Amino acid sequence: MNQALAPQSRSFVRRAMGAQSAVWRVDGVLLVAVMALSVIGTLLVWSSTRTWAAGAPTGMVKKHILNLVIGWILCGIAATAGQRTLRVYAPAVYGVSLLGLFAVVTPLGSTINGSHSWILLGGGFAVQPSELAKPALILMMGALLAEPAPGTDRPRTLDLLLCVAAAGIAAGLIMLQPDFGTTMVLAVITGGLLIFAGLRKRYIVGLGLLAIAGAAAVWLFGLLKPYQVARFTAFINPANDPRGAGYNSTQALIAIGSGELFGKGLFHGGQTTGRFVPEQHTDFIFTVVGEEFGFLGSATVVALLGVVLLRGLRIARQCDDRFGALVAGGIVCWFAFQSFVNVGMTIGIMPITGVPLPFVSYGGTATFANMIALGLLQGVHIRERAF
Amino acid sequence: MIRVRARLVVLQFLVLTLLVVLAVRLWQVQVVRGGQFVAAATETRTRDVIVPAVRGQILDATGRPLVRNRTSLVVSVDRSEVERMRDGGRAVMKRLAAVLDRPVKELRERIRPCGPHVSRPCWPGSLYSPIPIDDNVSPREALQILERQEDFPGVIAEVQPVREYPLGSGASQTLGYLQPVTEQELKKRSTLKANFSGVDLVGRDGLEYVYDDALRGSPGLRRVQVDRMGKVLGIERQTSPTPGDILITNMDADVQKVVDQALVNAMKNAPRADGAAAVVLDVKTGGVIAIGSMPTYDPAVWAGGISEKDYQRLLSEKAGLPLVSRATHGQYAPGSTFKVSSLSAMIRDGYPLHGKYDCPGAYDIGGRAFHNFHGIGMGVIDLHTALVKSCDTIFYKAASEMWTRDGGNKPVPHPKEPMTNTAKLFGFGRKTGIDLPGEVSGRIPGRRWKRQQWAATKDASCTRAKTGYPEVEKKDPGRAKYLKTLAHENCVEGFEWHVSEAANLSIGQGDVLVTPLQLAAAYAAIVGDGKLRSPRIAKAIVRPDGTHVQEIKAPVTARLPITKETRDYIRAALSEVTSDGTAAGAFSGFPMNVVKIGGKTGTAEVYGKEDTSWFASFAPAADPRFVVVVTISQGGQGAMAAAPAAREIYEGIYGIKGKAALPDGKPVEKLPSIRKDGTVVR
């Protein structure tokens, strides 16, 4: 019997479930946390859409479940893909996502809910390339920064410049939509990855100053749309214009606050049922958990998000491979920023920015991107001690 | 890799910090301040809809409605909601104006709050309740608003009961009207707030005001859940309204119509008449069967917000102040109708009832001749004839003698003043206490009154006595001189009760003022059982389902200070006035065999104006059941204006011409019964 052929001769199931199988090396805590967030998210989407969803009350939640199924499949694919393969294909993935972003600003793009960030696929499906740009940029930068300058563990200058260029092009295209929230996410990812890759402290300080200068320039030269300015002033003082820009944050606070300790129970949130908070199933989904499940529910969601972030960080720290660690770190930056901004804006400690809550908000492309990221994390975890 | 890991640890620290920040803030928002947000949520999520109680009807003694409700489609505007809109509600009001086919300006005027510098139309009620802007829209208009609620935020179209007055302008001052409750009223009447909705109306005058608590009922509350578009999602809780009680009055709708018509005719026949009043009292019970005042108005003008033109008309002197009931607010010198009091004063002071008295054409009072009417002497007559023919000089003489006995201009310590004091015991000079608001008390002058007047005016008089009247002097030096002398007299001896004043009082002239209602109540006591009653319009308050009847009786307030013999003597005398006395002309041809009418004419002189015409009467003369008092301001002689009007009223009551308003010759005694469903059995 040919020894080399022996493993192949075993059945797929036995191979998949065997002691050496990657399945047993998956980060179970991370997996369970994301599953829990998905289940909670599904309930919240159901609760917030049942009063108005086209057709049956379950119309939207069914679509959400379909998105999750597709997302988990994508997660599996991403997890099984080898790091080497990913590094090789990273420029291609990035290129495709740039094409998508570019298509949005051409007549192929469509406007949904006031943001011009969609490509309609027909049959009621649409993709949002800016969401997919997040993992694509992480992969691209991870690949660029994986090889440090010879003899050091700092990035090469050329790689640095390429990174900034890659991020700048993607962010620029997203700014054209305009999608301020996603641009910020890309900026955070870029900054995080550069810092992890060993950027010198003086450059970090320079980067920080650059960010401040950029923000000041945007503000001073009036590059923001009036509604964006209004969101910031409303954040400073929501009572200023409670019917206009301050309306969302005021209503979100009322919904969450009125949940008190135990919440009003699923489907019993009056603010949710009355649709007082706009975009309740997407960007403001945290208000539903706050109202219907109370402090216990919202703290649970924050805790679960914390588990995801901390497990992600653990994966990044334990990874011996520079590429894997950078990818995992970038993903944590992405999720951390979105989680904090999203929850923060509903409880009045952050200005209103259109970013979804990872693994909870409704939204096909965002779900796919999140699940791909989860798959990448698991992939890093599975292989971190394999080599 | 060490550097990567080190920097990841920094990120971990950052992530943990952010998670703690979120958790602390969540605790603060949801647990510490949770209650506050629950209240805010309830406020945004629910709307309290007041379900107004149906106001009770006002019925006459037979159960015919005097005030009833009709349902009508009312469009109201929630001012607070409209004001919050970005454009101040301009767009909504424009759309609404198009649907209702009214100018936008008018709609905007109707929802502005009334104030010192804001003329009607404006909203006098609470700013937090919907303001009705049209109380009679067609179903098509209402549907346009209801079906496109998103185009009409803050606009409400609903079925509401609206007051209706079957008598038209009849008895309008007595029935009263409704107006939205004001913030001040809500504050003042704390009981009002508890069962008051804000969208309800409050009785502002007449019976609607006096019996407001009973008629109003208590509104229901429906707390509904709404979404952010204001669409109702469901009812959270509900209490149903309790309809108001039914008010049954002593009034008779048919008699009221007769009275109103008689007053209209009397005003027409007396060219200078500027007002008229009539009261029909039930002698036995003190109930008010009819009460009329001219000029009048149709209370329907109040419904749905009154226009500036209508409002100004109601308040204008030129239109004769139609809001004011002359029966309770009108004060006039009573003329000879007052002699019943003066005669009683004489008897009380010891003058013999059956004595003979000289009635010369004139009597000297303080050096001035006081004449009989037309200056005709009647020789030696009894008091009976003195009343029938209305001799004045007998009363002048008696008043002069009484005045002298009281010490004349230097009064004895406790002057008896029989004329003044008897008049007061007849109920003059104080309110009758009728169940109507704002009644006036009239005035009975006397020594004490004179002193009070002097104390109040002496400073002004004494100043004028020195300075004179330079402003009058330019135009009329003679009058200025006269006024200065008068001021001097008032300053020096204004407290003196002159004999001429006493004489004037005895025949109901000069400073004495009575209301038609006071006179009617006094006459009812004289020709009835001698008891003075506080007249009542209301007869009973009945629950809308017919249960629990609360009867209202006219309370006896005093006993007349004269014997039955005197009363019968007066009644017998007055019974001949219509056949042989001053009212014989007015009642010529009246079938006295069917029902005999008794009464007394009165002609009161008013300086610079036409006389006030009075007729105080009763029927049937032998056993009186009705007292009818008619006053025509500036109507001329009593026999010429008031007596014919009273005759017309009796003709209507007894059916002398046409159908009888009260075929039995007496008011309906049995209360109409109310069925369980609120319908009235007659």
Description of the molecule:
The complex is a heterodimer of chains A (387) and B (682). Chain A is mostly helical and 387 residues long. Chain A has 15 helices and three strands. In chain A, 66% of the residues lie in helices and 4% in strands. Chain A has a three-stranded antiparallel beta sheet. In chain A, strand 1 and strand 2 (115-122) form a beta hairpin. In chain B, strands 2, 3, 4, 5, 10, 18 and 19 form a seven-stranded mixed beta sheet that branches. In chain B, strands 12-11-23-22-21 form a five-stranded antiparallel beta sheet, with helices on both faces. Mean pLDDT of chain B is 85; it is low at 192-198. At the A-B interface, helix 8, helix 11, helix 12, helix 13 and helix 14 of A face helix 1 and helix 2 of B.
Would you count the extended β strands of chain A for me? Answer: 3
Major sheet details of chain A: 3 strands, antiparallel
Structural class call of chain A reads mainly alpha
The largest pleated sheet of chain B is described as:
7 strands, mixed
Helix content of chain A: 55-70%
Shape of chain B: elongated
Quaternary state of this entry equals: heterodimer
Q: Which strand order do you get reading across the main beta sheet of chain A?
A: 1-2-3
- Strand portion of chain A: under 5%
Termini gap of chain B: 104 Å
Dominant shape of chain A? globular
Radius of gyration of chain A over all CA atoms, rounded: 22 Å
Rg of chain B over CA atoms, rounded to whole Å, is 33 Å
The number of helical runs of chain A is 15
User: What fraction of the residues of chain B are assigned to beta strands by DSSP?
Assistant: 15-25%
User: What does the average pLDDT of chain A come to?
Assistant: 85
Please bin the fraction of helical residues of chain B.
25-40%
